[in-house]
Design goal:
Distance between the termini: 37 Å
Number of helices: 15
Oligomer: single chain
CATH class of the largest domain: Alpha Beta
CATH architecture of the largest domain: 3-Layer(aba) Sandwich
Largest sheet: 5 strands, parallel
Strand order of the largest sheet: 2-5-8-1-9
Number of domains: 2
Helix content: 40-55%
Length: 317
């Protein structure tokens, strides 16, 4: 099948996928779009929002619509790395036997990831980057496709362990879920307080997702689009020559090269699901905020003056 035909088919299936998810998730269109884009690119996402905005339900619904195996890990202060990865036990023949942990799944919902200490958070790093885990010197490959969709609650900071920058950088997108509009909330209440339960049909299979990821990587990108993405990331670095006054005044730290790579990958996926055969600068702009917002660090002056990361990124766009 030609790549052009494959892109056209992807547009159809993507719209079908969104309408399936829309049966259960009302509103949150941006969050749904970015979550699906990260999956089509093979990236991980961090979902940030106050309790009750359907973060967990969104991940659950997406995994059903994609026909993928799904495991939820509730992150707590006493969770140990072996609770995620698995552990070795002595069997009846006095031989060590490896019991797989919940990480051996296609979609991992890391619920409230910032509630667990750094030692346990770090257990996810190798899995996210290498798609494999090492236990007692033995190397185990994870089943593909593999995604970590983590949730974080931005209000309760008591008893939380903020994710280190190295771990945040492994997430392709940070997706903020907003409160629903009045109309959407009325719809949510109507649909969740009756007897009718919506069921979601599976639109993709695991193999089709892997094929789609390969297709997206094949999409050609013009040099000027790559240069725009690299320049945009460069502008977030306060010490770079291209940094704006706003960046120099309000940022301590800018985004690294992984941001440039993710901007181009996400722009390819954004172009493909909108029926374009090559991304342009508009596609890069469309994905810039969720890709850059967790990779740049504000200083105290920005905090004091109420300047948000989103304000700074929008000034660069």
């Amino acid at each position: 099948m030609s790549d052009v035909k494959a892109v056209n088919e992807l547009v159809e299936k993507y719209n079908l996928l969104k309408s399936e998810i829309g049966k259960v998730i009302i509103g949150q269109k941006e969050a749904v779009n970015y979550t699906l884009l990260s999956i089509l690119c093979g990236g991980h996402s961090l979902l940030i929002g106050v309790p009750g905005l359907a973060k967990t339900l969104l991940v659950n619904t997406v995994s059903s619509a994609l026909g993928l195996h799904f495991n939820r890990i509730q992150f707590t202060p006493d969770l140990m790395p072996s609770d995620i990865l698995g552990s070795e036990i002595l069997d009846e023949n006095r031989k060590f036997k490896f019991i797989k942990g919940p990480i051996f799944s296609n979609i991992i919902l890391a619920d409230e990831i910032n509630r667990t200490p750094p030692k346990t958070q770090a257990a996810l790093l190798e899995a996210m980057q290498e798609r494999s885990v090492t236990i007692s010197g033995n190397h185990y490959k994870l089943d593909l496709p593999f995604f970590v969709l983590a949730t974080q609650n931005p209000i309760e900071q008591e008893g939380t362990y903020p994710l280190p920058e190295a771990q945040l950088d492994r997430f392709m997108f940070s997706i903020y879920l907003e409160y629903p509009s009045f109309k959407e909330e009325v719809e949510v209440v109507k649909s969740t307080t009756g007897n009718v339960l919506q069921t979601v049909s599976s639109i993709f299979s695991a193999d089709e997702i892997i094929e789609t990821q390969k297709l997206i990587r094949k999409i050609p990108v013009a040099d000027n689009v790559i240069e725009y993405a690299v320049r945009l990331v460069g502008k977030t670095r306060p010490k770079s020559a291209e940094a704006t006054e706003m960046v120099k005044s309000y940022l301590d730290w800018g985004a690294g090269p992984r941001a440039s790579q993710n901007l181009i990958l996400a722009a390819k996926a954004h172009a493909a699901v909108h029926g374009k055969y090559s991304p342009d600068i508009e596609d890069v702009r469309a994905v810039a905020i969720p890709i850059l917002s967790h990779r740049i660090v504000k200083n105290y002056k920005a905090e004091a003056e109420g300047i948000t990361i989103k304000d700074i990124i929008e000034s660069l766009l």
